[in-house]
Amino acid sequence: MPLLPRLVSRFFLAFLLLSWWPALSYAVANPDLEKLQKPWNQLLQHHVTTDGRFNYEAMLDEETQLLDYLQSLRKVKPDPQTWSPDDTKAFWINTYNAAAASLILQYYPLASINDIRVKEIGGLKSPWEAPVVNVGGQVYSLNQIEREVLRNQFHDPRVHFALMYGAASCPPVLAEAYTGARLNEQLDAQAKRFLNDPAFNQLTPQQVQLSGLFEAYSAEFGPQAHVIEFVNRYALVPVLPTAKVEYLSFNWALNDRTGLSNSQALGKH
User: Fold this and answer.
1) Distances in Å between the alpha carbon of 43 and those of 51, 98, 113, 135?
2) Which domain holds residue 124?
3) Which part of the chain is the DUF547 domain (predicted)?
4) Which of 176, 162, 174, 149 is nearest to 78 (CA)?
5) 140-187 per-position pLDDT tens digit
6) Which is nearest to 238 in space by CA: 246, 226, 225, 229?
7) What DSSP designation does 233 have?
8) Is 118 helix (H, G, I), strand (E, B) or coil?
9) Whose CA is closest to 110, among 170, 194, 54?
10) What's the number of domains the chain is made of?
């Protein structure tokens, strides 16, 4: 091959590799983060039931391991120089879920996470507004993680199928920690599992009854046409663009290992 075409070919190859490098690097597992998440991953494997509920009673025996894991987060600060966006997103989902589980364990047994009132100077705070976890020296509430970090930074409504709200109507809990290298795969699997489970959503071509999560976070899921488009990305039964959309009430009974019947979980507003 003449010199000039050969140089052009090499330059083009180098350009492609450089342009693909960020995407390739983001798909590679972060060993330090995997090590950090290992205790939480093990707790999930031990205490999440096959139908995605949480065995809080059994987890009480390993509460020390959970507290140690949360304590380790005090020394961690997400680093955009070495963490991919998916690493960061997965980290905050895991942090939210572990902090929510720990808060529930502190008051267990209880009927609903909404029954919790955390004593603070100046009064009592809800489980959503109370400071529950220290990350990198900064204390966060569950709402701060969800709204100020996950929502504002990533704009990914699938996150709501991954966060553990501690409720019977929340999506089934994944029995493993979220990881940056597999995050899109995990979030898509959660969306597909949740949307096609008749305990949470009822889908037909002409009519859909969706979880109250879609209504609560309508600003993120968008207008009805966008909601149907989103549903059709994961639905086993395609929904028509003209389908009637209704929203089901959200059952805040605790998502412990004792499940509810479909009729209990699907009460309408």
Assistant:
1) 16, 10, 20, 20
2) 31-198
3) 81-195
4) 149
5) 999 999 999 999 999 999 999 999 999 999 999 999 999 999 999 999
6) 229
7) T
8) strand
9) 54
10) 1
The one-letter amino acid at 264: Q
49-63 burial, b at 16+ Cβ within 10 Å, e below that, comes to: beebbbebeebeebb
Give 116's strand partners: none
- Name the H helices within the chain: 3-26, 31-47, 56-59, 63-72, 85-107, 142-143, 152-154, 183-195, 212-216, 218-221, 224-232, 262-265
Distance in angstroms (rounded) separating the CA atoms of residues 254 and 128: 15
Q: Whose structure tokens read 């605790």?
A: 254
Considering the entire predicted model, what is its pTM? 0.86
- Is 151 part of a structural domain of the chain? yes
**What is the per-residue pLDDT across 22-40, written as a single tens digit (0 to 9) for each?**
444 345 678 889 999 999 9
104, pLDDT greater than 80: yes
Q: Do the beta carbons of residue 112 and residue 103 sit within 8 Å?
A: no
